[in-house]
Amino acid sequence: MPTLPRFGALLALAATVAACGVSAQPRAAAPTGTTLTSCGRQITVTRPPSRVVTLDQSATELLLTLGVHDRIAGTSNHKTPVPDRFRAAYERIPVLNPKIITSEQLRAAGPDLAVSPFASLFTKDRAGTREELHALGLPTYVSAVDCPDGTADPFELLFQDYTAMGRIFGVEERARALVEEQRAVIGSVRKAEGRPKVVWLYSMFNGIPYVAGHGGIPSAMSRVLGAENAFDDVDELWPEVTWEEIARRDPDVIVVGDLSERGRPGDSAEEKIAKLRDTPVAAKLPAVRDNRFVTVPGIEMDPSVRSVNTLQLVAKGLRDHAR
Question: Where is the signal peptide, in residue numbers (predicted)?
Answer without folding.
Answer: 1-24
